[in-house]
Design a protein that fits this description.
heterodimer, A: 70 residues, 2 helices, elongated, B: 466 residues, 20 helices
Chain lengths: 70, 466
């Protein structure tokens, strides 16, 4: 139970971190395309990667959420 | 395409009739009609949530947004959605437990009870009405005008709007929320299939994914970074949009209802992760469609770009599916919101426990007519108007979260803060208040201010139990 609570806290921290990362100059930077992935500019592919990591965090969150049952 | 259109329209209308009939038979008591029996499973929950969230705004608006403002649109919608899904995970159980504690019959009455003041409920109802009617209206108008452009000899734009509202009201009035949820599920499925067919066709027409981006880089490089060619997607604009979108499940009554009526918190969690996957799959192809549009229809008006890419470049059955999908999307988003307004009216006028639904039905009709009148007389900027609606209701978010989390009544100061912020926001929409104050987006200042008042109230009054 304690372990789940800790993992849930980590998930919350990760969600905040991923949101901050997506809105940081690392992702949002004017006229910067590099590095390119399959032709996609940085803002786009980094945004996709962040979304996919978000999905993993959400899934993990559903597994360890402190209020799983009503 | 007309033959295909007639076939798909007949199938879709038959499905609506079936859903209404089946729902009417299943609805035994008022709670069944208003809350679909409050017994929603994860799959239906995900599809109805998705259909409510992803409307014509997504099918027509997002490709156009990518075409005009570039890849930053991904951050604008997809990342904000991802943050919203996690946020549901974070506060959803609290919403459900508070809802059960107070025998939820609408957000208005829940707020009245939590704040121990009817002012809270009425304030919420008034602003939700003010911001949701324009949102419903632009959905209806967007599709009406689009259909007028592609079928110029059939019906004028207002005629399509009347047809959409009439259809929506008939099956909502007959089948209630259950019929809406069933038709939402159909719409979400059609949306996902249709948008991918068009997205893949756009990638193929551009010569592949890498080639698509290479060509955009050669011709419109400013689309491949923020803030985009028109400087729309600035940091503060994106941040304000993030707040607005994250608050959707807190403030929009049609979304709150869908969280409350899930069978259990665990099933709500399953729904959230499914929704995350669904949203990814829906938003991604809109980027491909939009960037393809930037290559081929860079200077075309939005309507021409949408008609060409979504319909005329597609083979007849696909074009027909898109037309029906758009119609279904406009209807499913609008009916959910109109019905939610009816539910809120029932809740704020203390009829939540009554078995008599006549007044609610009458007001669903009234709200539908309001939306129709607004649709016929409003502008057709889908995304900005939709966002203004979300942003307006989102200002209520911190006060609602405070109501959910506070262990005792915190007084009405947070509500006063919301009222002031909403008035300033309306002035901001009419450009009477500047867009930026001291280099910071005005909306961000407003949202943070109401958030700080709510947080302060919680820390000073709301933490300790009575």
């Amino acid at each position: 139970m304690k372990k789940n609570s800790l993992i849930w806290s980590v998930c919350c921290g990760m969600a905040v971190f991923l949101t901050a990362l997506a809105y940081s100059p690392l992702v949002l930077s004017p006229d910067q395309f590099e590095p390119v992935l399959f032709g996609m500019p940085r803002t786009f592919w980094a945004g996709i990667v962040i979304y996919l990591v978000f999905l993993v965090v959400i899934w993990l969150g559903t597994q360890v959420h402190p209020e799983k049952e009503d | 395409m007309i033959t295909w259109l007639v076939v798909f329209a007949a199938l879709w209308l038959s499905a609506l009739v079936f859903f209404s009939y089946r729902s009417k038979r299943q609805n035994q008591v008022a709670n069944d009609y208003v809350f679909a029996g409050a017994n929603l499973g994860p799959l239906l929950g995900m599809l109805t949530f998705a259909a409510t969230l992803f409307s014509t705004f997504t099918i027509m608006g997002m490709p156009d947004y990518f075409r005009l403002h570039g890849v930053g649109s991904w951050i604008f919608l997809a990342i904000a959605d991802a943050a919203m899904f996690f946020f549901i995970l974070w506060f959803g159980h609290k919403l459900r437990s508070r809802g059960m504690e107070h025998q939820y019959d609408g957000m208005s009455s829940l707020l009245s009870r939590c704040y121990q003041s009817r002012f809270a409920g009425w304030l919420y109802f008034v602003f939700v009405f003010l911001f949701m009617i324009p949102y419903v209206a632009i959905q209806i108008r967007g599709v009406g005008i689009f259909f007028e452009a592609i079928f110029p000899d059939f019906l004028p734009g207002w005629g399509w709007s009347v047809a959409i509202v009439t259809l929506m009201l008939i099956y909502s009035e007959i089948g209630g929320l259950r019929a809406i949820i069933y038709s939402d599920s159909l719409q979400a499925t059609v949306l996902l299939v249709g948008i991918w067919i068009v997205g893949v066709a756009c990638i193929q027409n551009a010569g592949g994914l890498t080639e698509l981006f290479t060509q955009v880089r050669e011709t419109h490089p400013e689309l491949l970074s923020t803030p985009g060619p028109q400087d729309r997607l600035s940091f503060f604009y994106l941040l304000g949009s993030l707040f607005a979108i994250m608050m959707i499940p807190v403030t929009q009554p049609q979304v709150v209802t869908r969280l409350i009526i899930m069978q259990s918190t665990q099933k709500m969690h399953t729904m959230v992760i499914s929704l995350g996957i669904f949203a990814f799959l829906v938003i991604l192809p809109t980027a491909f469609i939009g960037l393809y549009g930037a290559l081929n229809y860079a200077d075309a008006p939005s309507r021409e770009f949408q008609a060409q890419v979504l319909l005329f470049e597609q083979i007849a059955p696909v074009g027909a599916i898109i037309v029906i999908g758009l119609l279904a999307a406009a209807i499913s988003t609008s009916d959910s919101q109109i019905f939610a307004l009816g539910t809120e009216f029932r809740s704020i006028t203390n009829q939540g426990k009554s078995e008599n639904l006549k007044i609610m039905r009458l007001f669903v009709l009234f709200f539908g007519i309001c939306a129709l009148v607004f649709a016929i007389n409003s502008g057709d900027q889908l995304v900005p108007l939709a966002l203004a609606s979300f942003k307006g209701t989102a200002l209520f978010g911190p006060a609602i979260l405070l109501a959910l989390f506070a262990k005792r009544s915190v007084g009405i100061l947070p509500l006063i803060a919301v009222l002031i912020a909403e008035i300033i926001f309306v002035l901001y929409q009419f450009k009477i208040v500047p867009q930026n104050i001291g280099g910071i987006g005005t909306y961000v200042i407003l949202f943070v201010s109401v958030g700080l008042v709510a947080l302060g109230s919680y820390l000073l009054k709301g933490r300790a139990a009575e």
